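Extended Data, record Delta-aminolevulinic acid dehydratase
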Amino acid sequence: MFPLQRNRRLRVNESIRSLVRETTLSPSDFMFPMFIAEGENYKVEIPSMPGIFRRSIDLTVEEVKELFTLGIRAVNIYVKVDESLKDNTGKEAWNPNGLMQRAIKAIKTACPEMIVMPDVALDPYSIYGHDGIIENGDIANDATNEALVKMAVSHAQAGADFVAPSDMMDGRVLRLRQGLDAAGFPNVGIMSYSAKYASAFYGPFRDALDSAPREADVVVPKDKKTYQMDYANRIEAIKEALMDVEEGADMVMVKPGIAYLDIVREVKNAVNVPVTVFHVSGEYAMIKAASERGWLDHDKIMMEQLMCIKRAGASLISTYFAKEAAILLNKK
Ligand code: PBG
């Protein structure tokens, strides 16, 4: 075909490149994960996540308003629970006056159009740092599901738009759907962490919430491999996503992001619901660390990774870069 076909014609300058660009990014592609703590006017940076803070509810609300003006339309929220409130049942997770429930209410009151997606999993509330209730040395699947239903209903009562189960118990999407419907919340959606891998990329997140699996008085699994997926597996991710859609998930998620883009594309091709990708804490930390040393160009790497996640098939990207990327996109 050469020289009739010269592919470089479509790359001659930025104008022609912009005409033929197959993928675009905009602030509404992003969801911003936020860490909430008790207190007032409290804001502390997470050492392994420069630029990311634990904030009290009042400062969270201020930040959410700013995110909205930047074009961001969704936040995932996580809470840092006081040690004295942790146990093996996770019961603080459905306290109607708990930190999460107060945070949801405050955000929805101040910024009603922001989509609020609280995390549904017991790890921030568990004395063992696990996503479920420990019985006989393992996570009790079905008992955990019933706890998650109570938790999700309390989030809906506080005003959540969606609930986002990140626990990886079997059958929890169906139980959450049934539970929300029975409680009178048919319009509260479920964004399921469907293909969530047991990944070392979650390290900085566990620092942020003090939620890593820990030594205990009873036998507990030392990691999350009995519920999160083995990163050697691909077909299993499709099975997980298809089952969650069948159980009633409105959106599915693949997590982590960059190292898992093959999975993102396969899941995207297999399901007929939006696919979310979580660009997780460790991915954020790597870019921050390398660019602090001057080894990588921060903004360029950030935009390249976000664009590649979108190109792989993400409808939404949950990313700690949401605000910085939105500011950059709005400048153009
Ligand atoms: C726990 C949860 C984790 C993340 C989101 N929800 C960590 C884990 O499974 O241990 C990780 C997010 C990130 O690393 O940014 N339910």
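Summary. The mean pLDDT is 97.
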